[in-house]
Amino acid sequence: MFHSEATTNDIRVRVHSRYVPERSAPEQDEWFFIYTVEVANLGEAPAQLISRHWIITDADGKVQEVKGPGVIGEQPRLEAGQSFTYTSACPLKTQFGTMHGTYQMVGDDGDPFDVEIAPFSLGQPNAIN
Q1: 63 domain-assigned
Q2: CATH code, 23
Q3: pLDDT at residue 127 above 90?
Q4: Residue 40 structural domain
Q5: How many CB atoms lie within 10 A of CB 127?
Q6: Of 18, 50, 60, 76, whose CB has the highest number of CB atoms within 10 Å?
């Protein structure tokens, strides 16, 4: 299991990823990973997650960007002290890769701000990079 953590403007983002062998087909260059994200509001002011921007890089250096509204069909609002956790997936054509990005948030004052998603690895355990 791989993980990352970053805090921006009192919003902490923790990510844990893992390889899913039962959904993978290495003989067809298909590796499947899931990642669980916890977004926590450590500050005093509420904030809402509006959109996401992921940058996914595989072991061959191929970069894919994913942008869209919210996460898993939701745009969670986090009051002070609240957190939101979700799980999503990422298929790769290589057995290793990385993900990082940003969430676009907006406070009650209407001002948007970006929150860092620190880089984390996607990798098949016990494989040599």
Answers
A1: yes
A2: 2.60.40.1470
A3: no
A4: 2-123
A5: 11
A6: 76
Instruction: Report phi then psi at 23, rounded to 5.
Output: -105, 5
Q: Give the HSE-up count for residue 127: Cα atoms under 13 Å, Cβ half-sphere.
A: 15
Question: Per residue in 43-89, pLDDT tens?
Answer: 999 999 999 999 999 999 999 999 999 999 999 999 999 999 999 99
In a domain, residue 50? The reply is yes
Residue 82's contacts (CB-CB under 8 Å, 6 or more residues apart) are: 40, 41
- E strands, the chain, are 2-8, 11-19, 31-41, 47-58, 63-69, 77-78, 83-92, 96-107, 112-123
pLDDT at 96 over 80: yes
Looking at this protein, which amino acid is placed at residue 125?
P
